[in-house]
Specification:
The protein has 194 residues and is an alpha+beta fold. It has 3 helices and 10 strands, in the order H-H-E-E-E-E-E-H-E-E-E-E-E. The termini are far apart.
């Protein structure tokens, strides 16, 4: 026995395939109505890419890498430098002194306006608590205020601020066996680099 052929205009239950097809057609129509023409987007992208800064990097015999970024406008150009196993030239060691007994792994500077950034990664045979205690003493003596909390997601970390929040130093520590590796990251005003 064969099933009767549905008559024109008779009710047909919607199948999953027909629902998905209808949803797809609706989505395409909606995206077509809401999206901008391709030509203006392409020309905007082209003009943005022509205004993108170009970067060059050179390496010196000491292992220091210097990169400079030249923006398309006449503003001051930021410069970046990094070094392995030593402090990069101009590092603000007065603000971020190396903890006694620590060995430098890497350091870097990015000079910009109105603030510049500096970072230092080093390892030491001290506990994370000792590293945080050391830098709390050093930084608060310079007028930084320790922020609440001593860890983020279980990683020992302390943040310090001064100059109404314009200068920020973060100290984080990771311990592996008997060695602690700590990173100092700082955003500092130009006077801190003198």
């Amino acid at each position: 026995m064969t099933s009767p052929t549905p008559r024109h205009g008779a009710y047909r239950p919607l199948t999953r395939r027909s629902l998905l097809a209808a949803a797809g057609v609706s989505a395409v129509a909606l995206m077509s109505a809401c999206s901008a023409p391709a030509t203006p987007v392409a020309s905007a992208t082209a003009s943005n890419s022509s205004a993108t800064a170009s970067a060059t990097a050179t390496s010196t015999p000491t292992g220091t890498t210097r990169a400079s970024t030249a923006p398309a406008t006449g503003t001051a150009k930021p410069s970046a430098e990094s070094a392995v196993k030593e402090l990069v030239a101009g590092f603000p060691s007065g603000v971020l002194p190396l903890m006694k007994g620590a060995e430098i792994q890497a350091s870097s500077l990015v000079h910009a306006s109105p603030v510049s950034t500096a970072s230092l990664t080093a390892s030491i045979t001290a506990t994370p608590a000792d590293v945080l205690k050391n830098y709390t003493t050093v930084l608060t003596a310079q007028g930084f205020t320790a922020q609440p909390g001593d860890a983020v997601d279980g990683v020992p970390l302390k943040t310090f601020v001064r100059a109404d929040g314009q200068e920020i130093v973060t100290v984080s520590v990771v311990q592996t066996t008997a060695t602690s590796t700590f990173t100092l990251g700082a955003t500092l005003l130009p006077a801190s680099f003198k």
